[in-house]
Amino acid sequence: MLKLAHILDRICVYAARIAGLLLLGLTAVILYDVIGRRFFNTGSVALQELEWHLHGAIAVLGFGYAYTRNAHVRIDIFHQNFSDRLKLRLEIAGILLFLTPFLLAILWYGFDFAHRSFIRGEGSSGGLGLDHRWIIKSAVPLSALLALFGAWSVLIRAIATLRGVRTSPYETAGLWNS
Predict the structure, then answer these.
(1) Whether residue 121 has pLDDT greater than 70
(2) Looking at the whole model, is its pTM more than 0.85?
(3) What range defines the domain where residue 114 resides?
(4) Count of structural domains, the chain
């Protein structure tokens, strides 16, 4: 099972690396847009939409990675005083009872959301922006899938740790050392 956790974790890492590359692309698009507007009196609705689309894609591609590295928002007011075993049990319960059903619903409805956009040939309102709006709408179910992969990777490692299977500090980082 730890091998599966590692595979899910690696998928999240690769998605985060793609987000990093997209960040370079976003920087180039913003520079081009700012320089063009400032010095050449040009502007483009499509360029502005591309900036927003890239920004959104960068954010959602990192969801699973953030979860595996404990870089997500957590309210630690009580959590910090719990024992390591209780923290692991709470993590497992949270993933199984709340996070997984929520992300499965986002995945299900997000796929429908993107699919309807694809079928309709949805594009930018006003016709001046980007076509193929389904591409950015596909980020919704993709983000849910990546977050699920990250959560399930953490779930498997937490269960293994509770069962006494020794995992590396890297694999269990953030599960209780907050």
Answers:
(1) yes
(2) no
(3) 2-172
(4) 1
